[in-house]
Write a structure and sequence with these properties.
Blueprint: E1 19-22, H1 27-40, H2 58-72, H3 76-87, H4 108-124, H5 128-132, H6 135-146, H7 176-180, H8 184-203, H9 207-228, E2 229-230, E3 235-236, H10 247-255, H11 264-273, H12 285-295, H13 299-313, H14 336-345, E4 348-350, E5 357-360, E6 369-376, E7 379-388, E8 392-399, E9 404-409, E10 412-416, E11 419-425
Parallel strand pairs: 5-9
Antiparallel strand pairs: 1-6, 2-3, 4-5, 6-7, 7-8, 8-11, 9-10
Helix pairs in contact: 1-2, 1-13, 1-14, 2-3, 2-4, 2-14, 3-4, 4-8, 6-8, 8-9, 8-10, 10-11, 10-12, 12-14
Amino acid sequence: MINDFYNRYTTSPVELKSTFSCDDALLNPVWDACWRTVKLCAQDILMSDASWEQLQYIGDTRIHALTLLYLSGDDRLMRNAIEQFDYSRSCEGMLASNYPNDGLSIIPCYSLVWIDMIHDYMMNRGDKAFIGRFTMGIGNVLDWYKGYLDSTGLLKALPYFNFTDWVNDGENGIMPTVKAGRSALSTLQYIYSLQNAVRVFGFLGEKEKATQYKNLADHLRLCVFNQCWSHEKNLMAENSLKHNFTQHTNILAVLTNTVSQPEYKDVMEKVMSGIGMDKTSIYYDFYLFEALKKAGMPEYFSKKMDLWKAMINQGLTTTPESYAKPRSDCHPWTSHPAYEMLSFLCGIAPASPGFTSVLITPQPGIYQNIHGSLTLPQGTITVSLFRQGKEGLSGKVTLPEKMSGKLSWNGQEISLREGEQKISIR
């Protein structure tokens, strides 16, 4: 006879295998909270949160899957999510914003994020047979969006629930300019995923499709720049009227190369000041960090970490949905700082699909030493690096067997080989 039954803890069997540390010990509990969040919400699906909705949302899942992959090396739930979202496809070719679910809720940009997830998987795992199953679905989403382009090269007002981020001026997460149409933001979201699709089709050897989507992305970048770039503010406006500005649009302008490389730092400095702009939530800070990484501005990562440190000081042991008044205290879409500690600060990133080679571009920012390890199917990449004066770098890098790569620091490149090697740059 069973007298009582308790379920204290349930999770998918994923284990923490990667490591990170630096000379800021206050980042350690942030790392721990990020891992605890992605693990608790890794069930038979990648849940958006542990208690509020417990659904698998595409926008949440991209960040959840990538962080879980970097911290555990386990790609099973990432593959499962990509596949399940494909099952949710409507007759129009768009995906449900969350699935499995018995209803159909469409957030258009989340179908684009599904493409971005496939690109993430390609770069980290490179399983051609698996990725090749989704080429028709990728085309369906991109062609649906293409049907809403008008003569200006910008997207018209889109149907369905056009959530972008929880912002002050947004109506339930919908930017007014996105709702009105001819929005730089929604068009840049499309361009971002077009560019990821180009790399996916190129990897699969589908050169005609890759060329087709590249030409479209390049054309749309010019359309957005010519109509929405404010020469007065040196920022990308929300539309051709140039009255409204958001951090989101300028982040995507950097990530899509819609602004040129010499402009990256100036644009991102203005983004970080936030003056006269709608600001990102801690969810969309994932894309903010990616743009800062691209612009080479790691000092702002440490400044932003003050928010996550404050959450820890408030007693949180997991990362919440939002910084102020969260509905959910365990929400993986804000667990991305752990991913960034390895990919941004340590600079560990795949240089080719399947992580067959590595590019290590450390950006320690204010930190004097950084140490990290990333577990892959091929083995473990480890970095242990120390600043030497203002411009020097020393330490060790270890690559798995049969892996090669490069380390880039202050304009210098060092070739890397399998095994342990000492780094010394002055």
